């Protein structure tokens, strides 16, 4: 399977966003086994780690080792989150293919999450882009706009601020900028409105939809984003994830349910649902005390279901 055979890209963020949001620490070997299983299912972009101090997020202490393993999987885009230039330097040294930097539209969340103002984060994007350009020009840089739809600390977030920030990070050197519903506040009408504005503002550099299911609207919001032309979606197996610096924010969109929705609609993801369900086993084995979610894995696919990507698998 290759990208030409898919209509949308499913970017799995569980090994980073999911694992950093729970108390359990998954052993490195188990992380690698889970990533292997996701890859076998047809996932071709995985956010495998975040490069942050181990004292802050001990769940990510083995980031470099996980990246080293993930790089052995042919055709996989290995992605990592970084909070600053130091993290970006470590991620590039480890050999990632893509780095993503969270830039919060909420002034309060920005200070809580990365201890920098929004303006300081724009400067950080500039520094990272300059370093990338000099040392690893092949590495992609995404600056995702966090809390784009609302914030548990600040409340309402101005849509004008969101678009301004996206324009600023692109001007600072980011290759793309997507929108994140960090706190699960968004509704489909809001999703449509803001992604339409984003595309009008930065065109082809408009990036992924990173949406949460905190209030049960995750899939509806993904569909709304797709209808506005978004073709890249972050999701997390079992719905693991959230933000440790946004109180009450829990639950990424469930990868299994998202893949099923698109495949049932005739939209190709290139992901084999049966193998995706099997990938839940190494996840659960690695964090046996954590609950994982998903409607379709529990109910199964409908009788006679034929996925859109049938025949496109490896």
Mean pLDDT: 93
CATH architecture, please?
Alpha-Beta Barrel
**Whole-number total of structural domains:** 1
N-C termini distance: 5 Å
Poorly predicted ranges: 244-249
Strands across the major sheet, in which order? Answer: 5-4-3-2-1-8-7-6
Explain briefly what this protein structure is:
The chain has 314 residues and is of the alpha/beta class. The chain has helices at 14-18, 28-40, 63-70, 85-94, 107-114, 118-135, 159-171, 188-202, 218-227, 255-264, 273-278, 280-286, 295-299; strands at 9-12, 45-50, 77-81, 98-104, 140-146, 177-180, 206-210, 232-235.
Structure description:
With 314 residues, the protein is α/β, with parallel strands linked by helices. It has a single domain, classed as TIM Barrel. The protein has 13 helices and eight strands. It has helices spanning 14-18, 28-40, 63-70, 85-94, 107-114, 118-135, 159-171, 188-202, 218-227, 255-264, 273-278, 280-286, 295-299, and strands spanning 9-12, 45-50, 77-81, 98-104, 140-146, 177-180, 206-210, 232-235. Strands 5-4-3-2-1-8-7-6 form an eight-stranded parallel sheet. β7 (206-210), α9 (218-227) and β8 form a beta-alpha-beta unit. α2 runs antiparallel to α12 and α4 packs parallel to α6 (118-135). The protein is globular. The N and C termini lie close together (5 Å).
């Amino acid at each position: 399977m290759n990208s030409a055979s898919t209509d949308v890209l499913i970017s799995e963020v569980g090994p980073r966003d999911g694992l950093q949001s729970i108390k359990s620490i998954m052993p490195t070997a188990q992380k690698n086994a889970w990533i292997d299983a996701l890859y076998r299912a047809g996932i071709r972009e995985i956010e495998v780690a975040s490069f942050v101090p181990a004292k802050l997020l001990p769940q990510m202490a083995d980031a470099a080792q996980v990246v080293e393993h993930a790089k052995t999987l042919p055709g996989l885009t290995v992605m990592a989150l970084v909070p600053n230039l130091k993290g970006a330097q470590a991620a590039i040294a480890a050999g990632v293919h893509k780095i993503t930097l969270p830039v919060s539209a909420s002034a309060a969340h920005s200070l809580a999450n990365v201890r920098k103002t929004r303006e300081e984060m724009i400067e950080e994007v500039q520094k990272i882009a300059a370093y990338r350009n000099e040392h690893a020009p092949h590495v992609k840089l995404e600056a995702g706009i966090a809390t784009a739809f609302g914030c548990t600390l600040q409340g309402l977030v101005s849509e004008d601020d969101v678009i301004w920030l996206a324009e600023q990070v692109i001007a600072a050197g980011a290759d793309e900028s997507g929108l994140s519903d960090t706190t699960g506040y968004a509704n489909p009408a809001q999703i449509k409105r803001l992604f339409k504005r984003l595309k009008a503002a930065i065109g082809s550099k408009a990036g992924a939809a990173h949406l949460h299911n905190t209030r049960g609207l995750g899939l509806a919001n993904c569909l709304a984003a797709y209808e506005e032309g978004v073709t890249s979606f972050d999701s997390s197996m079992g719905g693991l994830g959230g933000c440790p610096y946004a109180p009450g924010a829990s639950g990424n969109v469930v990868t299994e349910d998202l893949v099923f929705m698109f495949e049932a609609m005739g939209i190709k993801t290139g992901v084999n649902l049966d193998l995706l369900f099997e990938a839940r086993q190494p996840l659960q084995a690695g964090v046996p005390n954590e609950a994982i979610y998903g409607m379709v894995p529990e109910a199964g696919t409908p009788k006679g279901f034929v996925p859109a990507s049938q025949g496109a698998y490896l």
